[in-house]
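Need a sequence for this fold. Nothing fancy.
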């Protein structure tokens, strides 16, 4: 069996106990980040991914006597994690997390609906938590490169797949498992898994344009310049400069608000309606979903205090911003700690 990090290694010799406490701790340390990313892709939630990777290792420890070294430790852990995710999805109220409500048209003008905290919103993923994917070599069945399969747009698209389709697509097209191996994990025949994959790929073809992210798989110098200009626009109170960074057909989401905007004029008009709500802004660069990201702090007009305000995930294209997802209050500030951002801006 193989996955996106190469051959899946066995632990010890077949038929012998291999998972004493020390070996299990080494195993956990080696695969924790990769498994957490897998759980995040399945769930669309950073917090749920944390819980599920803990659950995976707890189940693995309790079942360690069943692992005799004949197979791959990594494959064994992925099987436990995937089943845990499927059970968790079945138990929760929503099978998917979203960046926008299906069939909701783009908005114009001010946003008046308020935060929709009852909806399950797709969360961003800190680059600091990613496994080392720089030199990943997906297995022979994989269809997506490692960096592409972390992008926010990709994770948003796979959330629209039914859970079994989602699991099959991630195992086969991202991790590079074969249909035979995936059938052994999910149950059913190889033919049934191939049928599931066919439906999943059709949905992805509609929701995630093939080739969309290939031009952005590796960070570029232009990306760094764009991020710097974006941060300067916020800190210099330069709304016009920020809007100039957008592509004409840019898309803007702001979870947990339902409203979303398409096109530079509509985005600029909306931002203009809220820009002066605070007395100033400070920005700190982070990384999210292998994309440029920024944590923005806002200065209160009445109490002159700096507070975490929003987390911004940027999708660059050709030196401009193709998509901008700004996680605003109350969701945005709750994400700062996970991205290593302090409760107040650091003054240099």
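Here you go.
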């Amino acid at each position: 069996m193989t996955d996106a990090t190469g051959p899946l290694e066995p632990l010890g010799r077949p038929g012998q106990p291999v998972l004493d406490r020390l070996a299990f701790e080494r195993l956990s340390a080696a695969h924790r980040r990769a498994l957490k990313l897998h759980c995040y892709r399945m769930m669309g939630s950073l917090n749920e991914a944390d819980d599920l990777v803990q659950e995976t290792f707890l189940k693995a420890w309790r079942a360690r006597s069943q692992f005799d070294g004949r197979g791959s430790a990594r494959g064994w852990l992925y099987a436990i994690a995937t089943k845990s995710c499927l059970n968790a999805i079945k138990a929760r109220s929503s099978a998917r997390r979203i960046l926008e409500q299906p069939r909701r048209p783009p908005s114009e003008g001010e946003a008046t609906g308020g935060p929709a905290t009852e909806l399950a919103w797709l969360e961003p993923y800190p680059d600091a938590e990613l496994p080392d994917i720089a030199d990943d070599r997906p297995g022979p069945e994989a269809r997506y490169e490692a960096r592409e399969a972390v992008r926010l747009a990709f994770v948003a698209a796979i959330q629209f797949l039914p859970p079994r389709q989602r699991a099959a697509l991630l195992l086969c097209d991202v991790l590079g498992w074969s249909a035979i191996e995936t059938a052994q994990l999910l149950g059913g025949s190889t033919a049934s898994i191939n049928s599931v994959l066919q439906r999943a790929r059709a949905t992805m073809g509609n929701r995630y344009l093939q080739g969309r992210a290939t031009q952005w798989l590796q960070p570029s110098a232009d990306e760094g310049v764009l991020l710097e200009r974006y941060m300067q626009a916020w800190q210099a109170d330069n709304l016009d400069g920020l809007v100039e960074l957008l592509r004409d057909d840019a898309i803007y989401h702001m979870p947990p608000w339902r409203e979303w905007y398409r096109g530079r004029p509509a985005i600029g008009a909306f931002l203009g309606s809220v820009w002066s709500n605070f007395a100033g802004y400070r920005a700190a660069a982070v990384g999210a979903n292998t994309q440029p990201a920024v944590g923005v702090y806002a200065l209160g007009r009445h109490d002159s205090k700096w507070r975490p305000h929003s987390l911004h995930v940027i999708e660059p294209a050709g030196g401009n911003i193709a998509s901008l997802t700004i996680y605003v209050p109350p969701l945005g500030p709750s994400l700062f700690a996970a991205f290593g951002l302090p409760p107040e801006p650091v003054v240099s």
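For context: The chain has two domains: 2-92+123-214, 219-339.
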